[in-house]
Amino acid sequence: MIASLGGIWLIILFPIPFFPLWGLPIDPTSLSTLLIITAIITIPFTLLAIFMNEGNSGRRSVRVD
To answer: pLDDT tens digits for the chain (65 residues)?
Structure first.
């Protein structure tokens, strides 16, 4: 179930690489644009994942009355 939803999500989000499966021509510049956009978007999400995990590692829950 999750794999099929992930596959549908990929086709909707990144339809350009799947165009040859449907017999549609693709322009090579569209693939390079897709790779550039993917690389640019990956950087902030990677940093977000790194800093979200490191943010709580040094804190201890201390209760002050």
So the answer is: 888 988 888 888 778 778 888 888 888 887 788 888 888 989 998 999 888 876 655 555 556 65
Contacts of 20 (CB under 8 A, 6+ apart): 26
Three-state SS annotation for the chain? CHHHHHHHHHHHHCCHHHHHHHCCCCCHHHHHHHHHHHHHHHHHHHHHHHHHHHHCCCCCCCCCC
Place of tokens 């596959």: 7
31 Cβ contact list (under 8 Å, min separation 6):
16, 17
